[in-house]
Amino acid sequence: MKTDAVQARSVPTLEMVAALAGVSRATVSRVVNDSPKVKPDVAKAVNEAITTLNYVPNRAARSLASRRTQSVALVVPESTSKVFADPFFASVVQGIAMYLADTDYTLNMIISSESKPEKTRRYLLGGNVDGALVVSHHSSDHSWSRLSESLPIVFAGRPLTGGDSYYVDVDNEAGAEGATERLIAGGRRNIATIAGPQDMPPGIDRLTGWRRALRRAGQGDSLVEIGDFTPASGGAAMRRLLERGVPIDGLFAANDQMAAGAYSVLNEHGLRIPHDVAVVGFDDDYFGATVAPALTTVHHPVVEMGSKMAELLVGLIAGKPTERVTRLPTSLVIRNSA
Amino acid sequence: MKTDAVQARSVPTLEMVAALAGVSRATVSRVVNDSPKVKPDVAKAVNEAITTLNYVPNRAARSLASRRTQSVALVVPESTSKVFADPFFASVVQGIAMYLADTDYTLNMIISSESKPEKTRRYLLGGNVDGALVVSHHSSDHSWSRLSESLPIVFAGRPLTGGDSYYVDVDNEAGAEGATERLIAGGRRNIATIAGPQDMPPGIDRLTGWRRALRRAGQGDSLVEIGDFTPASGGAAMRRLLERGVPIDGLFAANDQMAAGAYSVLNEHGLRIPHDVAVVGFDDDYFGATVAPALTTVHHPVVEMGSKMAELLVGLIAGKPTERVTRLPTSLVIRNSA
DNA sequence: TTGTACGCGTTATCAT
DNA sequence: ATGATAACGCGTACAA
Q1: How far apart are CA B138 and CA B87, in angstroms?
Q2: What is the DSSP letter of B147?
Q3: Which nucleotides of C are covered by protein (CB under 7 A)?
Q4: I need a surface site. Which of A65, B36, B47, B137 has the fewest CB within 10 A?
Q5: How many CB atoms lie within 10 A of CB A195?
Q6: Which DSSP state fits B273?
Q7: Minimal CA–CA distance to A237: which of A198, A284, A291?
Q8: CA B168, CA B338: separation in Å to the nearest integer?
């Protein structure tokens, strides 16, 4: 026997609010979406009803009616997610999440398996999100860029190949240039670099920045060895540099991890930092902070990158005119190595 | 002038599929949700229509009609998210995401600001998700546990205070016990520990495990110093341990980071690892892998923790009977320090 | 300024 | 086994 006059619904509906406030559902809807045209006192009454009922708009219904989802996808290639505790990735996501927390967009994290990208593709195009943020491992995979035609997408890091996608990147060139200038200003005349992979934008751009500073200062730019951004590769590169038998009194490492690797080799060879060789890194991560002497390095604003991406995406969704390229400035963190 | 007979809709609807397949919407819906009662040939025809149209069900509509969202929330306290690149957090999330990728649940990441928890609360109770996963920094914040009555929730790590929430944890006690047994089996008779904070479950449990092993072996358990899980605190604790002036030939550090800190101090004092002092850590993270000699440590199955959490939550949502406590086994990673 | 009424794309309840 | 048809909760012309 059902004795209930009013069903004990778990969540109140707009209709119930309307009833309590003595207005129509349309008016409640207007108040919820703060439409300009609703009398202050009516709005007040509605809001009271809302709070007493603890009403929360149903996203699904709202989305269905308004034809937009108020949620964005965070696309993470599976290979990226496998990189346990990649500080870059974690921080970018943090920036994204924190920015979105102040909007009423929801963040849908989807890890896309490279083997069957169709699932992701369909999800994105299925009208389930209003836009997407793509963060791949080392900022170069724009394989989703074709979707940009159908859906606002913002990438982390500039693409390897031209393309015309929207992306946010740190100004790698300028950062590397500044790092190198620091070495030059310190009186160093034989400045080497341990560059990153030359098939990755950060690797390429940081090498370019180093070159630019050197050329402008009229110094040679032949002391280059390539690493793969790991400490071990940094050590190996440093070793090759020293084996050349030419003097080296300054080093710009394309990231802190390689700088840390170089430290060990420098120590092995009895070279003192910064006395014999001044060193500057890039990224300002854990590695640079824990080596001794503490590494002077280029700060990479990773969290800001994330929030900027989110900001741009929200703007794009709103139809706001937006520059395709956003380059965030770096800053030099002066510590003891240069 | 509108000349279009058929509106160029971006995404096809169930209705369009029905038309193309020559059946009713109801039937298409049945096929999509693979209901058992639909003739094979009809189903085939529908599926063909689906693929040619590239149809994707609209989540919002589906959710509205079915009264369930097919999405779960990942709740991250803001303070946790601030811990840049916390490997623990990143890996748990990876596990969660990877498990969910094989279901058709969507993961809604929401970072909840401690200052206004109401927003999160309302979101969770507003019927926007079918369940929630809570990952706080060091596995103890169950402040959301009260919501468990209204919504399935699974936590990472056991709560500090009793409570009756569902949670997944690594078996810290057993892990620590095994680590200590390794030291005992190695003939060590003066085994110290650098414990974690005693107001955090992992800190407490790992100390308990150490004690249990020692007592069972009839050895004393007074060589205890507390750290806060950072390398620096590990170094400081080690120093205090040595200052006691009593012999120490074995050390169990409650995590790898503190073990790394202890390494430095041990080196300073001219003590060789493992010759003079055998060391075992806990977590099996980056720190333990990079110190020299490589650290013998207890493997913490972090990714598995995440996937297990997701698995349990999906089960709970489906109404499956579930144990409140799930403890994942650890394993000892034998390297060179013990 | 406010209310009426229709539609958003699915699922679910009935018939058939 | 399949098809009408009524919800689902909300936004939004359009009317008043």
Answers
A1: 11
A2: G
A3: 1-5, 7-13
A4: B36
A5: 26
A6: T
A7: A198
A8: 29
Question: What is this structure's pTM?
Answer: 0.87
Break chain B into its structural domains and give their ranges.
Answer: 2-57, 71-169+302-328, 172-299
* Level-2 CATH architecture, domain A172-299: 3-Layer(aba) Sandwich (3.40)
Distance CA B293, CA B106 (A): 43
- Kindly identify which residue of chain B lies nearest to residue A151, measuring between CA atoms: B10
Distance CA(B153)–CA(A313), nearest Å, equals: 31
CB atoms within 10 A of CB A321: 6
Please judge whether B60 and A56 are an interchain contact, meaning their C-beta atoms are less than 8 angstroms apart. no
Residue with tokens 């724009």: A142
Domain A71-169+302-328, CATH: 3.40.50.2300
Specify the pLDDT at position A140. Answer: 55
CB proximity A150 to B under 8 Å: yes
Residue B237 corresponds to which amino acid? A
- pLDDT band, very low/low/confident/very high, at B239 (cuts 50, 70, 90): very high
Q: Which residues contact A265 (CB under 8 A, 6 or more apart)?
A: A235, A238, A239, A242
CATH number for the domain formed by residue range(s) B2-57? 1.10.260.40
For residue B73, the distance in angstroms to the closest alpha carbon of chain A comes to: 9
Question: Which residues, in sequence order, are CB contacts of A143 under 8 Å at separation 6+?
Answer: A117
Residue A77 has pLDDT above 90, yes or no: no
In this prediction, residue B83 carries a pLDDT of 56
Confidence of residue B142 (pLDDT cuts 50, 70, 90): low
Please tell me if the domain spanning B71-169+302-328 has the same topology as the one spanning B172-299. yes
